[in-house]
Amino acid sequence: MTDTETRLRDYLDSMAATVPDEPPGLELTPRRQRHWPVALAAAAMVVIAVPVAIHLSDRDKATPPPPAETTGNELRLPYVLQGAGPGTLHDGKQTVTWPRGLDAPLGRVNGGWLTVQESIPSKIGVGTPDGRFRQIGPTGADFGTLSPDRSKVVMSHELGNGKTRIGVYSVAGGKELAAITLPFAPTIIWAWNQAGIWLGSENDVGAQPMLWQPSKGQPVQLSIPGFDASLVGATDTDKVQVVTRTDKGRAWCLKVGSVKGTGLAVDREYCGTGNQFSPTVSPDGRTMIYPGSSSSVDGKRTVVPQPVAIDVATGKVTKLRLPQEMPSYPPPVFEDDTHLIYTDTSVGGGTPPGQAPATDGKPVIRCEVTSGDCQLLFTTPEGVFLLIGRG
Fold first, then answer.
1. Is residue 260 helix, strand or coil?
2. What CA–CA distance (Å, rounded) separates 150 from 196?
3. Most confident of 17-31, 35-49, 231-245, 303-317
4. Cα distance between residue 21 and residue 23, in whole Å
């Protein structure tokens, strides 16, 4: 079983019983998984190596291909349907053979899609339309994240001595453009948006994030009271969404804001009670999502906690009227600034190697966050595992 499948199994197994609707909460037992960690670095950190400034030529500033043309109920995000043998990547009207072992696309880039080859050790690179994989950066790298303009990728590479090297590479040529070494391992890369690269130590509970601008020197250590090691970047802005906790972890708040000094200037917060969950935020930073763990069916039957969208400017809360119950993990993904995709990627255990995953058909649902209207787009075929990517 891969890391991805293990994370999905653990989070789905952790779903708890119904809780009151006001305020919404998510009664899940926290699970600390590699790609969805619940820990960051200790407050005082020393940077070992001074970063090298990025100097980009016009050749480096590659413009990624536009989103693929779509019709009908097709997703506006790339996704992979994986059965036995090679999978098929769908990106609008385009279909590409996707070699087994490549994870979901991390984003569109010139020449293909950034992805991870889930070998041991893992590799980060570009999956191409002709079914090949071009590696970028060192073998064993993790947490690959694209720059806002899609021309660069940052990744985390454990050095084996309690340290981690964070490297920035050109997508087009694979050249290293900047790097720092941090005195802890592993180091997670939360996001890369207009503010910079958001970093932290994965295994230190209660620690704080850092913000690195490669062209300006060393990372800045931030201090966000109650930070609960959950940070999502609004990719088109300098804003991030974080989760904070109080009352010995029983009460939480979603907060969207931008860096001010070494803290977070909060634009909007939305609070409730419950355990760990995986929130998300729109690319333009205007909509927070509390994903809930179940659904409201046709507006008649409410199963709580209720998924909601929160308008950052006004504070308006809109219930998302999902047509059927959905798991809280994986968290929903924004197609664009106003459309959200819910998926169910659970699989059965005990599938022999080389055979299709033991799974029934799974729903893929689109919600419009300003109205709360949701619709079923399609159901995956039986025995096929869905890997939803980023645009």
1. strand
2. 14
3. 231-245
4. 6
Question: 78-113 burial string, b = 16+ CB within 10 Å, else e?
Answer: bbbbbbeebbebbbbeeebebeebbbbbbbbbebbb
pLDDT digits (tens, 9 = 90+) for 191-219: 999 999 999 887 776 679 999 999 888 89
CA gap 289, 291 in Å, rounded = 6
Of residues 231, 221, 151, the one with CA closest to residue 182: 221
**What count of residues does the chain have?**
391
335, pLDDT greater than 70: yes
Could you identify the residue written with the tokens 């299709």?
356
Q: Which residues, in sequence order, are CB contacts of 211 under 8 Å at separation 6+?
A: 195, 196, 197, 198, 199, 219, 220, 222, 259
391 in Cβ contact with 346 (< 8 Å): no
List all residues 6 or more positions away from 353 whose beta carbon is below 8 Å from its beta carbon: none
Burial 296-309 (b: 16+ CB within 10 A, else e): beeeeeeebbbbbb
Decide: pTM greater than 0.90: no
The residue type at 121 = P
Residue 137 belongs to what H/E stretch? none
Which structure tokens are listed for 250?
A: 């029983």
- pLDDT confidence bin for 273, thresholds 50/70/90: confident
Where are the chain's structural domains?
A: 1-23+288-391
Strand partners, 386: 81
Distance between start and end Cα atoms, the chain? 26
Tokens matching residue 14: 């952790």
